[in-house]
Amino acid sequence: MSLASLGMLDAVTVAVGLSFLLAMAWAAVISHREDEPRAAGIFVTLGLLIPLPYLAAGLASFEGRAAIEVVLLSLTGAALLLLLLPLGNRPVIGDDAPKSRIDERDIMFSRNLLLPGSERFEAYYAANPEKRALDDEFRAKPGLLAKGASAYSPYHFGSADASFWAIERLRPYVEGEPAAERVSTEPEAMTRYVKEWTKKLGAVTVGVTRLEDYHKYSVVGRGDSYGQPVGLNHDYAIAFTVEMTKEMVDRAPLGPSVMESAQQYVESGVIAVQLAQFIRLLGYNARAHIDGNYRVVCPLVARDAGLGEIGRMGLLMTPELGPRVRLAVVTTDLPLECDERIPDDSTIDFCTRCNKCALVCPPDAISFDDRKDIDGVKRWQINQEACFTFWCQVGTDCARCMSACPYSHPDNALHRMVRWGVSRNAMFRRLAIKGDDLFYGANRPPARLADWMDVAPTDD
């Protein structure tokens, strides 16, 4: 029997069944290319099962066939409408502008740099005695990239250390004097140029926002300026993302994840230093904010520049790559056109329901609870001491939350379709969370090391 010989109802029923078959086959191929055998196998199974009732109803001859076809098509249409129309959405973000500034001396990276017995060490814990016992725990561990850490590999850790060495070489160039002669610019054209050039240098997304007080740390917590107030009288901030490859992040919390983290700090730092120097050559002030040399809280700046929302794990959740990015910022007085931030309630709603990052977090540093009012803002806050102590135990910056996040899937047609549905429909979000557990596992282990990563020292 050919489709041409079928009646209209039969032909539509068969066409829907074949469409499901092709869609599942297409998804299986993409999953295979992503090295996701579980997802590929499930898509193949669904491709065999889902079309069966449509093909049977459209091609077989039995009593009540037309009624069954009508029911099948009606249910299919209703399901598509319920999942694809913008339904069930509700505002969940509200006012999320911080009411106070963060003292950089309180973040774990700054506390890790305090040398026991030094004047700075004693002064900090005299002012913050409640943090002393907590920090003694991470200092009792081997430490980041240290021999004796549970994920230690001289090759993985050495590669990451080499990248951190490179980022240190960039730090002297984050600031500089602008050219004496100022080039006049038109904000709209200049903004377009800066964005496109920054992407050409390797950024994935770029946004511009007005620099607010709450974007800036209150006090410097690292380097020669430790303890000094942060001034930074710039008008604008350019934020951008670079991609951390899924191949490396999927090995979290093993060595390849910290290799990738360090490398992308370098990549973002190189871009930021070039961008800041370009602006200075035009005669305007500019400062690059890169790893270990920040004066701003990059996720807040990037959020307000329209690049994403800050999710349950405390990282920026971008529409394209989820949290699988590294950030850098350039602040300047170059006149620019700011991007309008449109708060993405769907991301916060998804994070509220998902909990996958909390489930996989080795030290249970990510809360399963809903957002709470903290300093006048409703948000999530991780247990930074527990998180950092685990880093010092394993020797890497973990990234298990990042690897498990459903938003971290590759930016291809299959996952863009899912993200599109997630952004529009509350029911689709619920289904996507269950689907991610089904296709990829609720708490799957780190991916096996690729052959080139799996190298061991010789005995001699």
Describe the structure.
The chain has 460 residues and is an alpha+beta fold. The protein is built from 18 helices and eight strands. The strands form three sheets. A four-stranded antiparallel sheet has the order 1-2-6-3, with helices on both faces. It has a two-stranded antiparallel ribbon with strand order 4-5. Strands 7-8 form a two-stranded antiparallel sheet. Strand 7 (372-374) and strand 8 (377-379) form a beta hairpin. The termini are far apart.
Describe the structure concisely for a colleague:
The chain has 460 residues and is an alpha+beta fold. The chain is built from 18 helices and 8 strands.
Q: How can the largest sheet be summarized? A: 4 strands, antiparallel
Radius of gyration computed on alpha carbons: 26 Å
Strand fraction: 5-15%
| Helicity level | 40-55%
Average pLDDT works out at 95
The number of E-state strands comes to: 8
Briefly note the structural class of the backbone.
alpha+beta
Query: Helix and strand string, N-terminal first?
Result: HHHHHHHHHEEHHEHEEEHHEEHHHH
Keywords:
8 strands; 47% helix; 460 residues; four-stranded antiparallel β-sheet
Strand-helix topology:
Layout: H1 8-33, H2 37-49, H3 51-59, H4 65-84, H5 108-112, H6 119-127, H7 132-139, H8 154-170, H9 187-200, E1 205-210, E2 236-243, H10 246-249, H11 255-281, E3 286-289, H12 298-304, E4 309-310, E5 316-317, E6 325-332, H13 345-354, H14 356-360, E7 372-374, E8 377-379, H15 384-394, H16 400-404, H17 413-424, H18 426-440
Antiparallel strand pairs: 1-2, 2-6, 3-6, 4-5, 7-8
